[in-house]
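Good morning C.,

I know you're traveling, so I'll keep this short. The sequence:
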Amino acid sequence: MKVVVVESPAKAKTINKYLGKDFTVLASYGHIRDLPAKDGSVRPEDGFAMDWETDPKSDRHIKEIAQALKGAEGLYLATDPDREGEAISWHVKRVLEDRKALKGIDVKRVVFNEITKSAILDAMKNPRDVHQDLVDAYLARRALDYLVGFTLSPVLWRKLPGSRSAGRVQSVALRLICERESEIERFRAQEYWTISADFLTSGGSAVTASLTHLEGRKLDKFDLPNEEAAMAAKAAIEKASFSVASVERKKAKRNPYPPFTTSTLQQEASRKLYLSASRTMQLAQRLYEGVDIGGETVGLITYMRTDGVQMAAEAISACRSLIGKQFGDRFLPSSPRIYKTKAKNAQEAHEAIRPTDVFRRPEDVAPYLDRDQLRLYELIWKRTVASQMESAELDQVAVDIASQNRQIVLRATGSVVVFDGFLKLYRESRDDSGDGEDETDRLLPDVKEGEAMQGRALRPEQHFTQPPPRFTEASLVKKMEELGIGRPSTYASILSVLQERNYVKLDNRRFVPEDRGRLVTAFLEAFFNRYVQYNFTAELEDKLDEISGGNIDWKKVLEDFWRDFSNSVEETKELRVSHVLDVLDQELGPHFFPEQEDGHDPRKCPTCGEGRLSLKLGKFGAFIGCSNYPECRYTRPLAVAEAGAAPEEAAEGPKLLGIDPETGKEVTLRKGPYGHYVQLGEAEPGSKEKPKRVSLFRGLEPADVTLEVALKLLALPRVIGKHPETGEEISAGIGKFGPYLKHDGKYKSLGKDDDILSIGLNRAVDLLASSPAGGRKKAEGKVIGTHPEDGQPVTLHEGRYGPYVSHNGVHATLPRDREEGSEPSLQEAIALIAAKAAKGGGAKKKAPAKKAAAAAPKKTAAKTTAKKAPAKKATPKKAGATATAGED
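The tokens, ready to paste straight into the viewer:
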């Protein structure tokens, strides 16, 4: 018996069918251990020794593998064919060695690019050892990310409260987004005009041309800067007579695009299918691991984390065979197209992403895939087949129409696809709109030099220059790849982290930096500029590739990095928060206090009229406040004052609603870190008692809050009346989860159709009667299927934060970019649950009864790579450092 270890249970089930009864295939469920999320897990002073901790949920999978190895002939580590897959195999091997489970067992590493029977059987015939250079590159990357995260994040917490953390690559990606936003803010539109004209040929055909030369000189973009210049040009054209000055004809070819890499797949899926990078990778993982087709689980595409564009010879041959049969020999080039990867590290340059069988057409697999899976498979299938098709052929024509003295020239252009070639199957989007290439087939009439042209309509058109567009996921991934920042397999997680930490948001599919993100970027640029430089990050990536190629020692790379980085951190220890604020206030002043069209000072306090507005720091993070504090208590959240707005409109400071008739105190509407709220009075100097505040519930807009509404909110909770059956009071209030009713110790949440301020006794009694006995009750989930490991149900639920799947106390939220209303497949649900379990997610279990004090607890952490040195650590100590350091 031989044991094979893969990453996912879905893959294990498929591979076991291919290998037969002499093999036992088990899943590790991804990474089995990681660096503990605490300071000191990487020790630079001890040769960069690392402490690894086995995930408690992974422990049972390791025990299952160890049990299967008893009496086994060999162990095959068959995790994914990339650096992370190599690392998982290395971790599994090390943990099994520590547990003495590999004595007398031959351990081999096998890799395959697709989950098909032939690929797997071939891989089993050609095993190798774990590639230590790839493992070293992984260790270096992991150590770098950890050291940056756990060293830099505490500096942020101390100097810039409210900031979450900083990561090695995520900070550079955030800088790209923030710099683009600054470009947009600095942009000033410039006016320019163009003129187009309609002509008739001697044969009566219409031609549209654009003005290119005036007064014998070629026009630049801004040579017609205003309406006056455009009208003068129009008048000159109207006075002239025109004929054809020249006709230029040429044939052009357009070659197909190479098959997808990880990066180009993410870009095209974003542009064409409107899928996020993370959603694209999730779908691709599912297609790679296999789909049940007619009772057999089949891997539909090759491995989806790759920077290679080459395809196997048999795949190319299959594409050419299909093209000949489906499209005809005219669409088949005389020889196969060979694409070469630009990847610097050939050891990780796998095949391009392609179908495992191109004769498995999208329409053939449609009944077995959900909508998004099918759309992504179709995109991959078309791109792959098109990459081996004949080039498209175009006829391009340019006609210059000139005045008799040749002082005025207008140009008409046309382009005709005379043979569509690969365009018959696939057209790449040219921009982020999802539109295809501009193949308009605009055909110009046949004209001859010297032929007279009769002028018709003239159209002067006003234009304004546009600011650079904000990044979409597609354009940001493309930019990161161009700069060499990160690696394609990490882009999806980098973009997700930026959104999860509220550094950026997606608005109309484009990234907009949050003010928190701009603060962090400004801080890092001011005090850690070198580490957010694009070329520095790219050079570090190159060094990691050199490590994986066996050309550089990984510890030498870490030593060089840590020496300079730790010195930079030390230099910030003496930084005063006031100095940090001054630097950020100067850097971000143009953003938060833009020039006003009416000329008034955007920094003048709208309350006292004397103080100067600037950035301040509080326990919830940064805000804008008046320099006359505490005499003037004006504050507003970190937000931009709209250009042209009056001071009182620009600021989101306290808005006076009126005076409470009972107490005589001011009632104000304010905005805090958790949203809008109303407040009664002000905090008394020297008093610890805070004024009463009530948050606005969902559905109540700040613009709708009057003094009357505010007083009702401040009066909550209120007694509605007594229940006619129990005699107990029914009260209404606003809690952590919104408006509620309370009766006899039980709570009932109010829906959007009920007003907490006006709900009456009869309605309250009806709502309480419809509530399940015992108060809130967890809704039963819909059973999707049974888990292949234990036969327990996998269920789908609707939770407070959206739909989620559940199994044995582990709950996994469905991705936010999933199509609303779509139900996950069983395999997808299992994958989500496994990923959540790997992160330590799950329901809390009841603590076991106490045992005798003599009983020693079992260790869950695997042995470290080196023993901890008792000497003091060089790594600076960080109070409460529990940042999430990893990002790649």
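Safe travels,
E.
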